[in-house]
Amino acid sequence: MNDIIINKFKEIYEKEELLGKLVFKGEYENYGISEIHCIDLIGKIENPNVTKIAKGMNMTRGAISKISKKLINAKLIETYKKPNNDKEIYFKLTDLGKKLYKHHETKHKEWEERNDVFFKNVSEKEQEVVANFLIKFNNYLEEIIKSKGDI
């Protein structure tokens, strides 16, 4: 039974990824999920820097540095420093980055509305069972992550 559950998680992930690619087809299809989520985080958090973004995305600082360089080259983000701190580098969205950020927000709302159609046909009891299962599984994975050390 757990093989079926794990395979269904994998299927859902793959289908969500495919739907994401279909939604962003065209203007933004050259950007991966990590780049889009990095832009989303830069648009949402205060004083975004490599450390904050890495923590928010559960990725290494090295991975975020690589993503940020790609986004800088694509003119989606730019760096800045605060006058009182010449060491720390922060990121902000360019006009093009803001456009992608807003587009992502719109698509995210559409994604929620799309999935609400499905959940309206699932009883509260079924949703409660699934939610409790996912919380337990998520906590289990979190404990494994903690035991292995932070990213």
TrEMBL record:
Kindly give the SMART domains that the UniProt entry links to this protein: HTH_MARR (SM00347)
Instruction: Report whether Transcription regulation shows up as a keyword of the record.
Output: yes
Which stretches make up the HTH marR-type domain?
Answer: 1-139
Q: State the source organism's domain of life.
A: Bacteria
Q: CDD domains recorded for this chain? A: HTH_ARSR
**Entries under Pfam families matching the protein:** MarR (PF01047)
Name the keywords, alphabetized: DNA-binding, Transcription, Transcription regulation
MF terms from GO for this chain are: DNA binding; DNA-binding transcription factor activity
Q: Which PANTHER family match?
A: HTH-TYPE TRANSCRIPTIONAL REGULATOR PCHR
Under what name is this protein listed? MarR family transcriptional regulator
Source species of the chain: Clostridium senegalense
The organism's lineage? Bacteria, Bacillati, Bacillota, Clostridia, Eubacteriales
